[in-house]
Each structure stands twice: as structure tokens, then as C-alpha cells.
Design a protein that fits this description.
The complex is a heterodimer of chains A (about 120) and B (about 110). By secondary structure, chain A is an all-beta fold. Helix content of chain A is about 0%, strand content about 50%. Chain A contains no helices and eleven strands. In chain A, about 45% of the residues are buried. In chain B, the strands form two sheets. In chain B, strands 1, 3, 4, 7, 8 and 9 form a six-stranded mixed beta sheet that branches. The chains are: A mainly beta (about 120), B mainly beta (about 110).
Chain lengths: ~120, ~110
């Protein structure tokens, strides 16, 4: 059974940094591209970042480019999102999602974690 | 990377068919056959319903179907059931390793 478990969320002040983690199991992690998607309270989904199986291809939403960094450790079956210079508008539920393929451009996220809440407030 | 445009809400009676539109641009929906659709029940993670415009993952009911014409993709739910009441989001590849989601549609079963 595919499992994606996010952790690392919390409450922090604007300008601070936070690192989210996603522990993967039940599938061949090193063969899969991975993504982060977020959802502000009561609002819609926003794709945040994606990374290919070998970290050679990475993409970011314009809203986080230059502030967030996605990475992975295939030896640890883990995905990460380093978030810097956090803003109040980054407040959201952050989901880790598995891509159906190994590259970022396959177009479907076929498994999702349950998410972790990030709240940025002064 | 502007969000794809979806109607805020669509409703139908049990057994009816409904269609949700998803309008993008020539930079996303119009260029790539990489449109997917996700169903999200309240408090739950999204679930993939359609990928590559019209393909259904294993286990998804054949009452769900997808299509695309120009810059607009569509999701049709036929034989509407109470369990279909949820939020639905389209998503398109937008080039250079990036994606864009739709604004979301609340489906209500009357």
C-alpha cells in the first residue's frame, strides 16, 4: 500500500524558515517524481514544486520561486520542502504527492499524503 | 501561472449528468494533453480521477469521463450519485516542469 506521511508543519512568524518532510513507503520511491501541493484554509489547490526521480528536473510555482527548495533523498525514501522567508500568504495545508511517472512532466499525481498544516502569523 | 478557470459550483439530481469546464490558455491546456482531474471530499486528500485528458486510473468509476477542445477541458459525471458530492479540481502541465490547478468546482447532488 502506498503511504505518504508529511511532517514538519507548525506555527511561525513571517520571515522565518521551515522544513517539511514526506516519508514514502509502499512503492519504488527512487523511480517516482514527487510534488508538493498546498491548500490555503477554505481555498483551492495550488501546485508548489515538483522534482524528478533523480533530482535533475525541478520546477516551482512563481509564488515560491527563490524562497522554497524541493529536494529528495532516495536512500531514505524521503521528500523535503525547505521554505524560507515565509509570508502570511504561505499559510496552507501542504500535501506531498506522488507522480505516476519518473519525470516532472507526466501530468498526474496518483497518490497523496494527508498533509501538514503550516501557519505563518505574527 | 494563472489558475485555470472553473465554475464555482455545479449541481444535478441523482442519475443526471453534469459537466465541469476548465478553461486555460495556449500555454497550458491548449498545448499539452496533460490535463488531470481531482476529487476532494471535505477534510480529505485529493484523489486522481482522470489523467492525460481522458484516461481513468484503475478503480475509478466509468461514470467519470474527460475531454478537451482547444483551451478548455471538461469533466463529465454521468449517473450522478450522492457520493459524487465533492470539490473537483482540474490541473494542467504548463511547461518547464510546472503545473497549474483550476479554481475548483463544488458539485452538489440535489
Amino acid at each position: 500500500e502506498v503511504q505518504l506521511v508529511e511532517s514538519g508543519g507548525g506555527l511561525l512568524q513571517p520571515g522565518r524558515s521551515l522544513r517539511l518532510s514526506c516519508a514514502a513507503s509502499g512503492f519504488t520511491f527512487y523511480n517516482s517524481a514527487m510534488h508538493w501541493v498546498r491548500q490555503p484554509p477554505g481555498k483551492g489547490l495550488e501546485w508548489v514544486a515538483g522534482i524528478s526521480w533523480n533530482s535533475a528536473n525541478i520546477g516551482y510555482a512563481d509564488s515560491v520561486k527563490g524562497r522554497f527548495a524541493i529536494s529528495r533523498d532516495n536512500a531514505k525514501n524521503s521528500l523535503y520542502l525547505e521554505m524560507n522567508s515565509l509570508r502570511t500568504e504561505d499559510t496552507a495545508f501542504y500535501y506531498c504527492a506522488k507522480d505516476s511517472g519518473s519525470l516532472v512532466d507526466t501530468g498526474s499525481l496518483n497518490y497523496w499524503g494527508q498533509g501538514t498544516q503550516v501557519t505563518v502569523s505574527s | 501561472q494563472s489558475a485555470l478557470t472553473q465554475p464555482a459550483s455545479v449541481s444535478g439530481s441523482p442519475g443526471q449528468s453534469i459537466t465541469i469546464s476548465c478553461t486555460g490558455t495556449s500555454s497550458d491546456v491548449g498545448t499539452y494533453n496533460l490535463v488531470s482531474w481531482y476529487q476532494q471530499h471535505p477534510g480529505k486528500a485529493p484523489k486522481l480521477m482522470i489523467y492525460e485528458v481522458s484516461k481513468r486510473p484503475s478503480g475509478v468509476s466509468n461514470r467519470f469521463s474527460g475531454s478537451k477542445s482547444g483551451n478548455t477541458a471538461s469533466l463529465t459525471i454521468s449517473g450522478l450519485q450522492a457520493e459524487d458530492e465533492a470539490d473537483y479540481y482540474c490541473c494542467s502541465y504548463a511547461g518547464t516542469n510546472s503545473y497549474v490547478f483550476g479554481t475548483g468546482t463544488r458539485v452538489t447532488v440535489l
